[in-house]
Design a protein that fits this description.
Blueprint (H helix, E strand, L loop, with lengths): L11 H8 L4 E2 L1 E7 L3 E7 L2 E5 L4 E7 L3 H9 L1 E6 L5 H8 L12 E3 L2 E3 L5 E13 L2 E13 L8 E3 L2 E3 L7
Length: 169
């Protein structure tokens, strides 16, 4: 199928501002490099993809070192953050290889797991889809562990962290 794209008149800033109105969940995607050395980055572009079989999708920047590691290992951890983990989200959003310095983590399914997260998912990547400046990873879930009594999920909306508040009945 051939797709023709019309010339876009949207400015990058207008697109960013429009997307800032969308409340997104926040997670730290992790992987193990040789050594073994943990790597991770903060994402807000992830979602449930399928129930049968259980699958998730995660979007990573094409220039991401983490993406290169996941391409080699074909595995990723998805630490869905709780509200108390906003500082972790900020720390893992910055560039660099020292993001795990002074961060408590433990191996789970041979992937770096951050304690206290609202949920933990380990997955094996099935497909990589290049889309613009990002790659979407389609991954089969091998472990899913929600913290039922745990924290409220961390969200990102209008360029700040928060959480979901249910509407009054």
């Amino acid at each position: 199928m051939t797709t023709t794209h019309l010339s876009s008149t949207v400015t990058l800033q207008a697109f960013r501002d429009a997307m800032a109105t969308v409340a997104s969940p926040v997670a730290v995607v992790t992987a193990m490099d040789e050594g073994p050395r943990p790597h991770g980055t903060t994402v807000s572009a992830f979602a449930s993809l399928s129930l049968t079989p259980p699958m998730v999708l995660v979007s990573l920047d094409n220039r991401s070192q983490l993406l290169a590691i996941i391409r080699r290992t074909e595995r990723l951890g998805l630490n869905i953050l709780g509200t108390h983990q906003a500082p972790l989200a900020t720390a893992f959003a910055r560039p660099g290889q020292d993001k795990f310095d002074d961060v408590i983590w433990s191996p789970s399914e041979n992937l770096p797991r951050l304690p206290g997260s609202a949920a933990w998912i380990a997955a094996e990547v099935d497909e990589y889809v290049t889309a613009g400046d990002h790659t979407v990873l389609l991954a089969h879930v091998i472990t899913a562990e929600p913290d039922e009594a745990g924290p409220q999920p961390l969200t990102y909306h209008r360029r700040s962290f928060g959480t979901h508040t249910p509407l009054a009945a």
